[in-house]
Amino acid sequence: MSSVLNAPPAAPASPVLPDPAGPAAANAAAASFANLTARLDYLSPGDLEQVRQAYRFADEAHLGQLRNSGEPYITHPIAVAAQCAEWKLDAQALMAALLHDALEDCGVSKAELIERFGSSVAELVDGLTKLDKLQFNTREESQAESFRKMLLAMARDVRVILIKLADRSHNMRTLSDVPRSKWARIASETLEIYAPIAYRLGLNQTYRELQELSFRHLRPWRSAVLSKALDKARGRRRDLISRVHKDVETAFEAAGMPVRIGGREKTLYSIYRKMDEKHLSFAQISDMYGFRLIVPNVIDCYTALGTLHQLYKPVPGKFKDHIAIPKLNGYQSLHTTLVGPSGVNIEFQIRTEAMHVVAESGVAAHWLYKANEPDSPTTARLGAQWLQSLLDIQNETRDAAEFWDHVKVDLFPDAVYVFTPKSKIMGLPRGATVVDFAYAIHSDIGDRTVAARINGQQVPLRTELKNGDVVEVVTAPVSAPNPAWLSFVRTGRARSKIRHHLKTLAQAESEGLGEKLLLQALRAEGIERFPTDDDGARAGIWDKLLRFTGNRSRAELLVDIGLGKRVAGIVAKRMATLLAESGEKPDAMVLSRARFAPQETVTQTAVTVDGSENASVQYASCCRPVPGDRIVGYLGRGEGLVVHVEDCAVARKLRNKDSERFISVDWSDEPARAFETGIVVTVNNGKGVLARVAAAVASAESDIIHIDMDQGAAQETAELRFVVAVRDRVHLASVLRALKRTPSVLRAVRIKSVA
After folding, report:
1. What is the rounded CA–CA span in Å between residue 682 and residue 685?
2. I want to staple 61 with a disulfide (CB 3.0 to 4.6 A). Which of 106, 312, 315, 575 is the partner?
3. Which of 47, 86, 104, 126 is catalytic?
4. How far apart are CA 546 and CA 553, in angstroms?
5. What b/e sequence results for 91-104 when a residue is b if at least 16 CB atoms lie within 10 Å of its CB, and e otherwise?
6. Which distant-in-sequence residues (6+ apart) come within 8 Å of 146 by Cβ?
7. Is beta strand 345-352 parallel, antiparallel or unpaired with respect to 449-454?
8. Sign of dihedral through CA atoms 82, 50, 358, 386?
9. Do residues 105 and 65 make contact, with C-beta atoms less than 8 angstroms apart?
């Protein structure tokens, strides 16, 4: 049994060995492969030789390079490999650790690494390499792209991030040698990105160390003050800790249960964060110390819990069973807080040896523990779900900054645990909603979600989940993701799936609109239909047209036309020229129909709109057209088709500048929905006037979407501005008549246009 309190490592041991002969000898020892050999006793002789070859290559590549401390640069790759050896990573990972800066700093090519050490090692090194050689607009963009590359490599092979975390750990241990001007940036990046990744992967020791080192360099004065206060508190409570340890040891000896007792001390950063978030003084932090009990098996964990509760009284509400419901990173333990001697609260963690390895080393436990349990499903799947979600997000997000935004929201350690109707446990980030839950089950479930029940009660989709909720999702085949969901979903997976669906939908609609516009413009040139690839002399016309426009595909060209990025008339003229070169002349009948058409646009027939369009067609907010209005369409650059009322002031200004971008638009005979329009109502001020006006709108079977009113309450009259939903101009007229008949209403008119 151990009575040593395992305080977090303030300055973990570096592979650099002190030597009485002086700094030169110490540097030589640190740069020597012998310094690493003692840690590699788990490798076979063949693997050890491969690692030795990688060391020789790295040593030669970094020859003459020095770190900021003055040590030979090779001491850094050796330190990184030594940390990887602590996790018992395989030979390929150790080779990549030794070579991880060779591509970036030494001009070594990936092809050379493949030839010397194989593709697996080269891919690991490439995944670790930053993208400094590429040109980016901002440092943030460069950083986002670097992390995207690293995380995707990590999703394919988790050894990438283990090596990267070992690399960052050694860099943080030696950060004091770096110019102080760089401390804040490097420490902040470590605290915001690398520490959460370490936590997410269950690397608890690395997580604690990165937090401590970041805190020490970000807030040196606060770190020093807290460290002194903790030393004093440790001295004051030494007798209390010894007494509790002895009591626990005696209780378990009496129960006849073997147990290993260790200590746990809260890190300086976690103490500081708790003081800051909860506005507490140092003296008010009661859980700085705790005990960890390691028992033989799972049943013993619960038996040990009973033994402790017989020894000291538990604090109500302070028990957590992370064995039955593990944390998202695979962590398992029983947590209980007891009232110890002198009324001091003391936390106990109870776990098995296997759980302890996972708790301290996370995904690295797969290598550390597989010798004893080679087929253990627990260690094999650690972090796998999150890593797979990275690939899912990447499939739908090509922009690096957007990808990183999605990933960052999944790095927060807090989580809630909810149940499906079949009692399966789902872990989600704190603040997750019903929609996040639906997408966590399956993307198709998320896309088709229409309603939800929590604990049998109907709830809005934006409802945040709480621990223990039983969540049931109701789906419908015709349902689709709503853009409003993006304002409340919490997980990166849900956010990326919704955005991907909306982008795909908008692209499909824009392609359809572009095809319609191009065909109309083509008919104005006397061509009845599009050429096809199996059309004899007309074959290959599309390829020539794409070379002219610079688009990669026919679909991309049509999307550009639908979004207004290209003018259909210009593309149609080019296609007509290409067809003429192939021997096809314009059809006189088609040409005459276009020439004598009543509209003055390049197209023969108008685009028909009915309100069922999504992103490809917008209805201008300046004039808010409704069915029955004379309308025109403006192909804004990248905005798709914007529909205006014909006499709209904004449309008139646009027509003076960009007349070739206007096309004819007609209403469908049967609009698919109600349309929003603006009305202004002038009323005599008085009690209940707003209620009467709202009742009049409702009596005309219209909905009020938005309302604005004058701020001056003391005036005799006031103007109320409404946005209402109406079916057409006839319906709008009936709404205005209902308003004019209402007592206190002096005037009711439609808002024509906002210039």
Report:
1. 9
2. 106
3. 104
4. 7
5. bbbbbbbbbbbbbe
6. 130, 131
7. unpaired
8. positive
9. yes
Reported as type and span, the H/E element at residue 607 is strand 607-609
Task: Look at the chain and count its residues.
Answer: 755
β-strand pairing of 449-454 with 471-475: antiparallel
Q: Is the CB of residue 296 less than 8 Å from the CB of residue 352?
A: yes
pLDDT tens track for 605-631: 567 788 776 666 788 888 999 999 999
pLDDT tens-digit readout, 173-221: 999 888 888 888 888 888 877 887 787 777 788 888 999 999 999 889 9
Give me the phi and psi of 279, to 5 degrees please.
55, 50
- Tokens representing 353? 């040896």
Q: Is 581 within 8 Å of 573 (Cβ atoms)?
A: no
Name the amino acid, one letter, at 386. Answer: W
- SS (HEC) of 251-304: HHHHHCCCCEEEEEECCHHHHHHHHHHHCCCHHHCCCCEEEEEEECCHHHHHHH
- How far the first Cα of the chain sits from its last, in Å, is 81
> Which one is catalytic: 105, 141, 247, 639?
105
Distance between CA atoms of 96 and 99, rounded to whole angstroms?
5
| Residue 417 DSSP code | E
Bridge partners, 319 (sequence order): 336
Can you read off the two tokens belonging to residue 217?
Answer: 């360099």
Q: Which segments of 410-556 are extended strands (E)?
A: 415-419, 425-429, 449-454, 457-459, 471-475
Instruction: Looking at 362-442, list the stretches that DSSP marks H as alpha helix, in order from N- to C-terminal side.
Output: 365-369, 377-380, 384-396, 400-408, 434-441
Structural Rg of the chain based on CA atoms: 35
**Helix and strand element counts for the chain (H, E):** 32, 20
In terms of DSSP bridges, do strands 675-684 and 745-750 run parallel, antiparallel, or are they unpaired? antiparallel
Taking every pair of C-alpha atoms in the chain, what is the biggest distance, in angstroms? 106
Q: What is the mean pLDDT of the chain?
A: 78
What is the token pair recorded at 659? 């007349």
Q: For residue 616, what are the β-bridge partners? A: none
SS3 for 91-118 is HHHHHHHHHCCHHHHCCCCHHHHHHHHC
- Across the strands, what pairs with 724? 677, 704
Mean pLDDT of the region 22-49:
72
Apex 540 CA angle, 537 and 544, nearest 5:
125
What domains can you pick out in the chain, each with its CATH number?
A: 5-218 (1.10.3210.10), 226-380 (3.30.460.10), 385-500 (3.10.20.30), 501-667 (no CATH), 675-750 (3.30.70.260)
Three-state SS for 634-653 is EEECCCEEEEEECCCHHHHH
3-state secondary structure of 552: coil
Q: How far apart are CA 187 and CA 654, in angstroms?
A: 51
| Residue ranges with strand state E in 13-150 | none
- Our answer to whether residue 105 is catalytic in this structure is yes
CA angle 638, 640, 643 (to 5 degrees): 135
Write out pLDDT tens, residues 377-404: 444 444 555 555 555 655 555 555 555 5
Q: In the beta sheet, which residues pair with residue 499?
A: none
